[in-house]
Design brief:
homodimer, Rossmann fold, 7-stranded parallel sheet, 3-stranded mixed sheet, 12 helices, 14 strands, about 20% strand, Epimerase_deHydtase (chains A, B), NAD(P)-bd_dom_sf (chains A, B)
């Protein structure tokens, strides 16, 4: 399969591009590199020293003999996008190319507008480009479990059958996103569903949970292939962030009561889920939604697991509940379904002591690069 | 009350601004006048000769002694928006200032992007402006009944209580919008709901049906106060369009089978609904949704009513079913609730022979201005 990974220079995108290439797919990366620019603007940095994309790809070629094409540009620039698609002619587009941080979107009005216009318009451009140039191309779009919020009923995969006043219909699952970033993904989902219905496009929306881990078989092959790992208050996510905090002796920052329950998955499962979606395309006209996570944990659970794993390797780990910068329920019902990817063959890597051990050791290796000023969350929702 | 009507130079906005002014509110209009510009670009025009906004307002002042302030500019320009709010200090903002045509949004990629970026970013700017400058100001936002699509269950007002696997929650009603325009309103609704939750803003989302009629007490006072009336394939809407077609002897253009059922209301009820919402503000933190229509009709019903009313005044009216340019169900269940505005005191003007008679006569008066080339729909959804 010819697979274009949009946002292939990012955390999930990079791991995915290498994995798909290693599995024998013809892969190209399209990326504007703006994620590195945002790091620079916010004066934050990945824990790991990531090489420029061109060096990464050269090293991949040298190691494996495989070539990954590179298109550097912005999908909000439609003519660039069209030209790239005409050159590469993908069978599937994996779309990671969005601003993906909730705190980033809540910094101020400019960042909220940037997030929604960048994400919504980029995605609209992809929909039109597929319609105009490659109507059979399968769009594999990264959504987020955060689209659902925390309803008091079970979360289904994209749709829910509702009985109401003696009648019944299966409708899009109601969305209660918790930031302007999460909202942008909800907007995307609605736009994609419409394009599938009206133009017969085929799309899979992957409502992904929180991804943890850093090593995949491919990114672990060489220092120049190393993946990014974010720990700062804007781009860092739970679990990865906790492991880095543990490594440098910073108390783990649990927001509020820590009863927030979320779906999580190992980055080695992210790349596998993408391949499963690519290998099993949606039908023409179908808007398919998979919930892409393997386990549910509360934030407090995660902190305790990191504390225990840290103790086992001699790290003294404290847990601090800090004022929640977000507006979210800290105790709530949460039961989300995730059978569709399993049914298609996903064999999860469940969170294990060995993964935590490996991640803690990895974080320790690079702890000299940590800027302690960037650890605490500075962006408030209110 | 001090009420800022954004989009106050448009069809609903103009009638609303004058009505609120006449009822004793302090009214200002904020408008970029881009609606007139789009008419020029598409080479279409209102049936009625509308005066420039400055002349309209001067005439209103001369006739009634009442002053309506005018702010000309674009809400996507945040500093202009903030400056206008700081000057006028509204108690309520009525937000009509969006691209409001479904066919316009479906012309091509550029018009889809224009519609979503204009509407979503303009609305985001308003949310931030209220938060920063006037946190108590009540946002009265025009949504559309088209946000709901045509589900096979009853349509509630914004929220639905769902029982699922033995648990229960009241969630946002699932949305199935039918164009990039309708999608933009769904995006707005999600963004507003979030702003109410996180910042404690107060907002009312008015999911309005198809508006018909042209005369209100105020716009009928003088030729210079006349309201716009669109009949073209892009901005014309069912019923108004049918009356104009009948007046000039053009067959009524029913799309497909005509079984599409929609909520409709008289423009004299639009202005009253807005006043009801303004006079009964939402609570701080409340995102309130009212379905703003008074009756349900199928498109075929409307065509038959116009045919009969035309016959009564000597017009020979034909009805033509034309290929449906849209992608929509032409026969479907549709039962939408609309009790909230009635409970707050709305006394509907139901569709009557006298209204149709008056609208047909009005259309006949201006029929010399019709460009017959602009009647048929040229924009296709597929």
């Amino acid at each position: 399969m010819r697979v274009l990974v949009i946002g292939g220079d990012g955390y999930c995108g990079w791991a995915t591009a290498l994995y798909l290439s290693n599995r024998g797919h013809d892969v190209a990366i399209l990326d504007s590199l703006v994620r590195r620019h945002w790091d620079a603007q916010l004066q934050v940095n990945t824990l790991t020293p990531i090489a420029p994309i061109q060096q990464r790809l050269q090293r991949w070629h040298d190691l494996t003999g495989k070539t990954i094409d590179l298109f550097i540009g912005d999908i909000c620039d439609y003519s660039f996008l069209i030209n790239s698609l005409q050159q590469f002619k993908p069978d599937a587009i994996v779309h990671f190319g969005e601003q993906r941080s909730a705190p980033f979107s809540m910094i101020d009005r400019e960042h909220a507008v940037l997030t929604q216009s960048n994400n919504v318009i980029g995605n609209l451009n992809i929909l039109y480009a597929i319609k105009e140039e490659l109507p059979d191309c399968h769009l594999v779009k990264l959504g987020t479990m955060g689209e659902y919020g925390t309803p008091n009923i079970d979360i289904e995969e994209g749709y829910i059958t509702i009985e109401h006043n003696g009648r019944k219909d299966t409708l899009p699952y109601p969305k209660q996103p918790g930031s302007f970033y999460h909202l942008s993904k909800v907007h995307d989902s609605h736009n994609i569903q419409f394009a599938c219905k009206v133009w017969g496009l085929r799309a899979t929306d992957l409502n992904q949970g929180i991804v943890y881990g850093v090593l995949t078989e491919e990114t672990g092959m060489d220092e120049l292939l190393i993946n990014r790992l974010d720990y700062d208050g804007v781009f860092g996510t739970a679990l990865n962030r906790f492991c880095i905090q543990a490594a440098i002796g910073h108390p783990l920052t649990v927001y509020g009561a820590g009863g927030q329950t979320r779906g999580l998955l190992d980055i080695r499962d992210t790349v596998r889920c993408i391949e499963i979606a690519v290998n099993n395309p949606a039908e023409a006209g179908e808007f398919r939604v998979f919930n892409q996570f393997t386990e549910l944990f509360s934030i407090a659970d995660l902190a305790h697991k990191v504390k225990e794993a840290g103790a086992a390797i001699g790290l003294k780990v404290e847990i601090n509940s800090i004022d929640n910068p977000r507006v979210e329920l800290e105790e709530h019902y949460f039961n989300a379904k995730n059978t569709k990817l399993i049914d298609l063959g996903l064999q999860p890597h469940y969170l294990s002591d060995s993964l935590l051990d490996s991640l803690l050791n990895f974080a320790t290796k690079y702890k000299g690069r940590v800027d302690a000023n960037e650890i605490l969350p500075k962006v408030k929702w209110k």
